[in-house]
Amino acid sequence: MLCADTSLKHLYESLLHPLSMGLTLDLFLGKPPDVFLFSMAGIMLGIARLPMGVTATQLYGVAILCGIGFTMSLFIGGLAFEEVQRPALFDERIGILLGSLLSAMAGYLVLWLTLGKATSQAHTDSRV
After folding, report:
1. Which has the least CB within 10 A, 8, 29, 58, 94?
2. pLDDT tens across 8-35, in order?
3. Which pTM was predicted?
4. For residue 115, what are the contacts with CB-CB under 8 A and spacing of at least 6?
5. Following DSSP, what letter does each residue of the chain receive, concatenated?
6. Counting Cβ atoms within 10 Å, is residue 20 exposed (0-12), middle (13-18) or buried (19+)?
7. How far apart are CA 50 and CA 44, in angstroms?
8. 97 versus 56: which is more confidently predicted?
């Protein structure tokens, strides 16, 4: 029982560690606006265009899903912290996995809400 308590305490401390919090917030809050704003800039400059029927909100939902990119984050984090003590690697991985999980859930929710409205509106329009 003591081992389980120590393990949960370490997990809780790792979740609140500045390294894991920074990575979580970066993947969940930092990446989506960058992807969305650069995509919208490309659209406004005429370099790209949204496919027919795709809204800016749906594009933002996809931008949120870009926070799932944990493979490269794990690779770069492993290189950055390879000479550091073991807990830093654990904190880094916890932050990446938590940020990816939050991005996946939020992106799914935004797309589910916006695509649900779009398909029901298209279905209503086809009846008229």
Report:
1. 8
2. 777 777 778 787 888 888 888 888 999 9
3. 0.73
4. 58
5. -HHHHHHHHHHHHHHTSHHHHHHHHIIIIIHHHHHHHHHHHHHHTTS--PPTT--HHHHHHHHHHGGG-HHHHHHHHHHHTTTS-HHHHHHHHHHHHHHHHHHHHHHHHHHHHHHHHHHHHHHHHHH-
6. buried
7. 10
8. 56
